[in-house]
Sequence to fold (573 residues):
Amino acid sequence: MSLLTFLMKKAFRNPVNIMPFLLAFILLGNAYYQYYTVMKRDNALAPAPYTPSYSISILNGDLTLLEEDDPYIPVIREQIEKEKVRTPEEENWQSYDLHQIAALKQSIRREAAVFGEESEIIPIMRRQIAYWDYMYRNDLPYEPYASYTNGIAFLCFVFDNILMPAVFAGMAYIIAGVFCSFHTDRIDQTILLPVHAGTKTVSEISFSMIAGILTSATVICFGFSMGCIFDGSGTIMRGIEVFNQDVQYVSLRSLLPQLFIITGCGLFFCTGLIRTVCIFISDAMTALGTSVVLLVGLCRLPDGFAVIADQAHWIPMTYLRPFAAVTGQLADRLKNGSVSLDKGIIILFAAGMALWIVSMISEHRRRGMK
Amino acid sequence: MLEVRNLSIKTRHLVFDDVSYTFEKGKLYGIVAVNGSGKTTLFRGLTGLIPTIQGSVLVEGMPVSRNRRRVFYYESFEWLDGNLSGMDYLVFVRDMWHSSVQIDEITALWDMDEYIRVPIRKYSLGMKQRLIIAMYLVADAEYMIMDEITNGLDEKNRSLLFQTLRSLCAENKMILISSHYKEDIQELCDVMLTIDSQKLREV
Fold:
């Protein structure tokens, strides 16, 4: 217990180390805010709900938009029946979803009549229908386009593109510090947990285990907070959008296992990278800065350079955007069908392993030269 | 006793070659050697902090790695974490070494009460050195290995340290101390050692 206390003090009194924890705290707070306000349905930023009378009139209108044999007609009729027994205070998100579907179906018919079935917009609208269908079937309360106005989309963008690589770097920095501190004097002095001769009389294994467990716990909490942000808000941002294939919408909660796997591989890779950087750059802040620039920079570079985007599937940093990688948006965004979750796991693991070996050899040689 | 058997240590080059020596409890040992001769390497080897290419170090007949709580060695104030306070270290050392020594008594004796709860980054060299001495006293280990412990101490504290070391020896503890200056510790120590041609020799 005293060791744990000491370890926590060392971790939390260092402003450099507290950064990732602070980020995790902010995101957890944000997740709670989103969860509370949205699930309670008193979020002033959410769109005004349809009142029953307004919903019924819209739904009646929607019946005319659909063809007679449309499979949505029975569910819209059922919805109209349900509306009748609702009080004015109640909201009905399902009627909104059905209205969207009906409107989109009519738009598709019009589009096909004018431009033919080959119109480029028709597949997009079909995707949107699939989305609204998912929203309807799961009675999800949140209107997705409203998310763009209330900041969730912005939050997701910032999270996946800036915070996540930075947090990866921070976490990996801590892990690298913990594991290196037992072997490398230089890193001992510069990174978290400078395990001095005095504490080395404590079992190194238990020490690293505790540190590892603490870090893992933080990462897991972090993962759950991510889940809350998306799933707790009552909707998914988008679905799995497999490159050049049909769209499928799923709950983000079901993606958490994949998310954890690629997050784990990402951490393994980042740890190896930062470990290597720390061996060659002695100053802690310079090492951290270089690592963050490498990780965040190479993570973002393929978005701006098509040449790199074509080869982005070979760059481990590409996969440090776990949400985009897991949902398939990454492949879509980079227009590179080779970017996939499986490849991401392999690349991150292989690169991580290579960096770990390089850093261990360098460390061994450096120690021998002392 | 702390027994060194056929110890060989190699870093960039061979620093110790087949060294054997027995450190007995109740004695104060001093090591004086030129810079770079391997004093710190020897201490690290004795406490199992660096790998050895040959030989063993036994504490009471058991390898030092299995008997570490009987030994206390804190290499340098450079290892202190500036964000922690001296008290954090003393509490940690007391708990990890299962010591019953009263921290308050030690801090009062060494005139550390005013700054012991302040972050170490605000300490002067002398304050840090006194903290390290306090850690040794709080650990209350049977074998104490001190690397240039007198650095940064004023005359008054140096006298107090020497007096304390003698009383620790009287309590049947083994103390191994190193210094750059022979005159500094010669009168204090029971046995003077030096490092010569990769061997540990009595002077």
